[in-house]
Amino acid sequence: MTQTTTALLVIEAQRGDKQAFDALCERYYLASFRFAFKLSGCEQNAADITQDVWSKVAKDIRVLLEPSAFKAWLFRAVYRRFIDLTRRHKKELLVDTVPEQEVEQFKRVEAGLDLRSLISRLPEVERHTVYLFYLEELTIGDIAAVLETPVGTIKSRLHSARKKLSDAAQN
Predict the structure, then answer these.
(1) The domain spanning residue 28 has which CATH number?
(2) Residue 47 has what DSSP assignment?
(3) C-alpha distance from residue 58 to each of 13, 14, 54, 122 (Å)
């Protein structure tokens, strides 16, 4: 689905077209869940985050001023919801609540792909940046919006992550 198609669906959804909203949900629900899972490391927390965000999207889609920025807006909402949950649990990380067998399953999936394994070893902020740039194919500007970080910082994180990945691949 192109950015133009997405923008048209958003406009229709803003006008109350349920089928257009369903099409957006069908296209982006799984991607938003994957991002929430990457952030939290827990399937249940990811499902809760995603559910909360899509409920908010359904209510607030009319206030989105730039329909072509829907994906960045959605991912920013996921990221903010994750941060809210993390803050709410204060120092207790969401990852600590993951059952042991779920952790092992996640590690097996991650280790199955060398690149993903290397990415999982990056510091958290670089890992999130690389994930959004390469796997979700967001632009640097969109990533900056999602993570609420300056564009220059995103470029720096990508550069640093590429260097670390290159060094790790050579070892």
Answers:
(1) 1.10.1740.10
(2) H
(3) 9, 9, 6, 34
Of the candidates 16, 7, 2, the one whose C-alpha atom is nearest the C-alpha of residue 137 is 2
| 80 and 6 in a common domain | yes
Give residue 157's pLDDT. 92
pTM (2 decimals)? Answer: 0.68
Contacts 24+ apart (CB under 8 A), 58-65: 58/21, 61/10, 61/13, 61/14, 61/21, 62/14, 64/10, 64/14
User: Which amino acid makes up residue 75?
Assistant: F
Looking at the chain, the whole-number percentage of residues with pLDDT higher than 70 is 82
Range of the domain at 77: 1-96
Residues 29, 91 within the same domain: yes
- Residue 67 maps to a domain: yes
Please answer whether residues 63 and 10 qualify as being in contact, where contact means their C-beta atoms are separated by less than 8 angstroms: no
User: Between these two residues, 22 and 98, which has the higher pLDDT value?
Assistant: 22
50, 65, 96 — which closes off a domain? 96
Identify which of 21, 148, 125 has the alpha carbon closest to the alpha carbon of residue 75.
148
- Give the tokens for residue 170: 């050579």
46 inside domain: yes
